[in-house]
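batch job 7 of whatever, protein = Arc/MetJ-type ribon-helix-helix transcriptional regulator
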Amino acid sequence: MDTKSRLAETEKITINLGLVDLGQIDLLVMEGFFNNRTDFIRTAIRTQLSAHADTVRQTAIRKTFVMGVQNISAADLIAAQAAGTRLHIRGLGLVRIADDVTPALAMETIASLEVLGALHASSAVKKALASRTN
């Protein structure tokens, strides 16, 4: 996977840490346990996700979330429209609504949208679906 693809599947977050916690992280970096602060934070997050993996998996199944990357194209929505179906999209990870999806098509075919992670869609589609987004 190239760097551009990897960056497209990540989301930047900002956190506030206490100064003592930050100092301890810096000490571990200085001692060579981690490459940098980001490496420490990613490792800590992965450790917690691993510790709670069963809960995440069971809850995602129970709540019918699609885990990973979910790509939704205009063709997908047109097919749903032709079938007389309205979609309830539930994603855990990344939900990508293609650039060829118009706000009108999204409104006609997407009944609800719940994303835990990141939603990538045009600002017009996001605005159109705002009232249907949890």
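notes: The longest strand covers residues 87-97.
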